[in-house]
Amino acid sequence: MLQWFIIGLIDCHKSPPTQQVHEAICAVMDQLSKNSSHVAVVSGVMSDCESVFVQETKRRSCPTQMVLPMHFESLCQHVSSDKASWMQAVARESIYVDVAECSANLADGLREADVLTVDRADAILAVVDAKQLTCPTSQDNELITYCRACRKTLVLIDSTSGLIRFEKQASVAESVGVSDSKRLSQWYSTSSPCPLPRSGGESAGMSSSQPPLTGSDTELAPRLQLENWYQEHEALANRLAPWARALMLRMIIINLAVAGITATVLSLDFSTELKTASNFLKMVALAVVLLLARRQKRTQQQWADARLAAELCRVYLDGLWPLKRHRMLECRLAIPGWNEMLKSLSMCWYMGRNDAQELQIAKQQYLTGRIDHQREYYSEHSLHAGRWHPRLKIFATSATVVAMGATGAFIVTTDVVGLDNLSTRLLRLVSAVLPIISAAVLSWIVARDLPRRSHRYAEMKAILEQQAASIRAAPNWPSLWRAVVTTENLLLQELTEWYTKNRGTDKSAK
After folding, report:
1. Among 352, 441, 332, residue whose Cα is nearest residue 392
2. Coil, strand or helix: which one is 462?
3. What is the pTM of this model?
4. Among 126, 135, 241, 325, which has the minimal tally of Cβ within 10 Å of its Cβ?
5. Would you say 86 and 49 are in contact if contact means Cβ atoms under 8 Å apart?
């Protein structure tokens, strides 16, 4: 799966950039992009520095996410007609245009736009006045502090001299994709002049024949790319699922066999040779169980990872793809380690913005592609769990009752009547083995999560039917977005619970 690296720019100085600042922006963009073949940017377009940043982004063919401080109609009152026309052109070429929601005035909107830029980016280029950062109460300092708290890769560019200061956060090496973070920090020496770009804005150390940063000329169409990811993870999950269940069942059966051998040896009279052979057989069987347990754990973890990845792809492919893009629809998962995949999926979704349908068509496609599919899944698995759970529970209870009867009969025949023959020994064997069988069946019920699935999946089916009615009646895009967000949050919550139960806490297999 593609690993996207998103670069953002915030202009804390709000003054026309000098040539040194322009060169610094170019050099930093080139250096941050060296170790990632898929780079996107997020930025506002109000200040001159942001305009330079967007122009350099266009020259490099990077996908752009545009952030506005308020809706375009209101924003046109604060800018010239030429600036408004340029912003419209940038918006048409952007994969997504975001708008600051809580913007009572332009100043508040600009501040919120900067915060949105920080939230969406992996690395932040901040054009700052070094003197302002020494004031603890300045708003610029608060924004830089927010970048640090969010553990972003932060590059400070002096608004006058173009000097660069690179701040190495704890997750810099992982975010940029560089294993040798020392080499990276050496390039960004503290308060050192940036390398001057060559002609055409090309930075030092970059050849003129280097391809665009995104490699967009050779990429697949966004939906085809997403389908390939889904098929890859779906095939892996389908291959591992039966194997993980089979390993669990084999472990239960072998443990049951070992317990049965032990009970048989204790209940019946065997020769010394047979007892020795049975002990050796038990040791071999228990060793096999240990090997199966290790393999089952690894297979279970790989299966859970593949299934979660496939379902996340399905969210965008079958659910969100025909909808008009809005950031509230982005998947959010409370599971560590999945941010990179979610970012790749959302970038692919934004880049396929031209596939968005009209409202009525989008509603119908979401209902048939997402709601109906999930409703059928939960209905089928609820019925399956509802059939097997009571049957297995009755079998386990019956085994316990029969074992109780066999124990009572054994006590009567041996202690009261005083018999000691093959029949009494068989009664003792049955009274010892049946409780073990009952425990094994109950273990399988718990392992397959049958009690929860039989009830929870029926609830999910009913909830999806209610959500389908809300989606079908949605009169406009905002109401549809809210209904879809509610639906997807419910589905992702159930998916998270399933993943946590099946994956466990060990991350060694990932």
Report:
1. 441
2. helix
3. 0.75
4. 135
5. no
Contacts of 42 by beta carbon, 8 Å cutoff, 6+ apart: 6, 7, 8, 64, 65, 66, 67, 116, 117, 120, 121
Contact 317, 226 (CB under 8 A): yes
Token pair, residue 165, equals: 């200061």
Domain 4-218 falls under CATH 3.40.30.10: no
pLDDT in tens for each of the 510 residues of the chain?
678 899 999 998 778 888 999 999 999 998 888 877 789 999 998 999 999 999 999 998 899 999 999 888 888 888 899 999 999 999 999 999 999 876 668 888 889 999 999 999 999 999 988 776 556 556 667 888 899 898 898 999 988 888 888 886 544 333 333 333 333 333 333 333 333 233 333 333 333 333 333 434 335 688 999 999 999 999 999 999 888 888 877 888 888 788 877 777 777 777 777 878 888 888 888 888 888 888 888 888 899 999 999 999 999 999 999 999 998 888 888 888 888 889 889 999 999 999 999 999 999 999 999 999 999 999 988 888 878 878 888 888 888 888 788 777 877 777 666 666 677 777 777 777 778 888 878 777 777 777 777 888 889 999 999 999 999 999 999 999 999 999 999 999 999 988 988 876 444 334
Phi, psi of 99 (to 5 degrees): -130, 135
Residue 98 to residue 100: CA distance in whole angstroms: 7
Tell me the CA distances in angstroms from 145 to 6, 129, 133, 149, 175, one per residue in order: 19, 15, 10, 6, 19
Please provide the distance, in angstroms rounded to a whole number, between the alpha carbons at the two ends of the chain.
Answer: 14
Helix axes 359-366, 450-472, angle to 10 degrees: 160
- Strands 64-68 and 96-99, sheet pairing: parallel
Domain-wise residue ranges, the chain: 4-218, 222-503
Cβ atoms within 10 Å of 114's Cβ, excluding its own? 28
The DSSP annotation for 296-331 comes to HHHHHHHHHHHHHHHHHHHIIIIIITTSPP-GGGS-
Q: How far is CA 283 from CA 206, 261, 271, 321, 494, in A?
A: 64, 11, 19, 55, 41
